[in-house]
Amino acid sequence: MVRKAEAPPGFYRCRIGKMRVCVVSDGPILLAEPGAIFTALSDDEIDASLNRAFLPRGPIRAEQNCLLLQWDDRVVLFDNGMGQSDLFGPLAGRLKQNMVRAGVPPETVTDLILSHGHPDHCWGTMGTNGIPNFPNAAVHISEAEWRFWEACDEPALDVAVAGFREQVVPMRDRMHFFTGGDMVLPGVCAVAAPGHTPGHMAFVVSSEGEQLHVLSDTIFHVPLSFDFPTTPNAYDYDAEIGATTRLALLARMADERARVIGYHAPWPGIGHVARAGDGFRFVAEPMILEGR
Ligand SMILES: [Zn+2]
Known about the structure:
There is one protein chain. The chain is built from eight helices and 16 strands. The chain is an alpha+beta fold. It has a single domain (about 10-285), classed as Metallo-beta-lactamase, Chain A (4-Layer Sandwich). The relative contact order is 0.15. Zinc ion (ZN) binds near residues 118, 121, 217 and 263. Zinc ion binds near residues 220 and 263.
């Protein structure tokens, strides 16, 4: 008898100081072959990197780890996955369901922070019939990112532009803009991380002396983004600036022994960055540290 596949874990809890953390999965997205994205790498380099990580060849499957924070009377969500769209395969779009399972339904969200305007980070903003999925949330996005997508007329970005206008622009009345270095909320500092998109943002979350660095899409693939931090990739709008940002951020995270979360890192995406040869490696945080 064929056993029906069990649903993968949908949420994971831990803490940052007084903040309760819940990483909620939107489900994985299915992307292109690595060779079509990391075009400067040889097949041998890609195969060796994947092999060291015990990953199969073939199209990339990436997690979508949405970070949810709760403290005092705030419920803060970072990014929101693919929503109704199957642009990147049928396995995404589970965020709302998993939030309900986690006991933090979408209507309780007070603040939605968008790292950037790509489909897999903001297409869950609106539900069907133009009704917001997070009806009580203020929305925060970097000013540079908003301006870029609002004005963008590049044919190659048609699909993403149309999605941004459908998903994010209708929230204009509840939009709050920030720039790098700003405190988006108490305990949430924005860190400019341009290149992936012009206004792409990382964040540092701090509470009672503990921190979590939200790397957003500075690294979108484990292990390739870590093994080859300076290699351009086709998902970065400006590949050169993206590489500079990635190298600097990974080096700082490694030197500071910082705790990080990667949106597309292996579930639930929390860990550390270590130096490895000319590059880096992602070291997942054992779940047992949280005493579960
Ligand atoms: Zn992404």
